[in-house]
Amino acid sequence: MSRKPIIAGNWKMNLLQDEGRELFEGIKSLVSGLSESQLPEIVVAPTFTTIGVVSAAKASWGSDKIKIAGQNCHWESSGAYTGEISVEMLKDAGCDYVIIGHSERRQYFSETDEMINKKAKAILAGGLLPIICCGETLEQREAGVTDEHIASQIRAALKGLTNEEIAKSVIAYEPIWAIGTGKTCDSVEANRVIAMIRRVVKEVSSEEAGNAIRILYGGSVKPSTIEEQLSQSDIDGGLIGGASLKADSFNEIITNSMKVAV
User: Fold this and answer.
1) Rounded to an integer, what distance in angstroms lies between the CA atom of residue 15 and that of residue 247?
2) Among the options 74, 102, 136, 165, which is catalytic?
3) For residue range 165-189, what is the model confidence (pLDDT) as tens digits?
């Protein structure tokens, strides 16, 4: 089954509004002259304060070749949750996707599998799509529990979702030991883990949903690695951190991804 690749840039806690607008314009300069059939699906995830200016730049451009993601959300639609942001607010700001379950959220803010499941349900109910992150620590990998740990994360995140909801969601496998370290999981091994994730998705939903869902690799993705990663059977794109903060490197990743059949 042909799945359209996704190249997603997670800006994390970086870039002020003018910098975010400039980066968007730099990516736009590459993709504006290309058709959507030539391109992977391109997603950028600015900080909450920068979503507005990126969304405005996108609106003035009048193209949907670059999608926008929020970096997190709350599962409630409104209420006394100081510092949080709802799915409706992200949608109103111009978002198409929401990243949830990132290892940094789990590690620094004690997010649980149950919370991530509630967020996934809220995102889908609100008309956006979740990018659900999963991954193992170096200690878990060395202990030989990578598959068991990630399968547990996936089962919990997808609990109670319909097959249709699962099919249109996105999963990102990010080995924690490779995030921001410069270390990249070997493409064959990353593909093995992602194929395992796909089998788990089929177990909790259906063969069709498992074949349709797009599963990305994240963890020090670079222009030099993306082509080999996308050449694997089950890797459907990349969730990119540091290399997404400069138009030159992010555009090179997009360009190199296009060398593999889109």
Assistant:
1) 13
2) 102
3) 999 999 999 999 887 777 778 999 9
H or E element at residue 187: helix 187-204
Our answer to whether residue 228 is catalytic in this structure is no
Strand partners, 41: 6
Q: Are 7 and 222 in contact (CB under 8 A)?
A: no
CA nearest neighbour of 27 among 258, 250, 255: 250
Helix (H) or strand (E) holding 7: strand 6-10
In the chain, the N- to C-terminal Cα span, in Å, equals: 12
* CB neighbourhood size of 230 (10 A): 23
| Catalytic site includes residue 102 | yes
Q: Indicate whether this model's pTM tops 0.85.
A: yes
Beta bridge partners of 67: 43
Alpha carbon distances (Å) from 153 to 35, 53, 106, 220, 230: 36, 34, 11, 21, 24
Give the total residue count for the chain. Answer: 262
For tokens 């200016």, the residue is 53
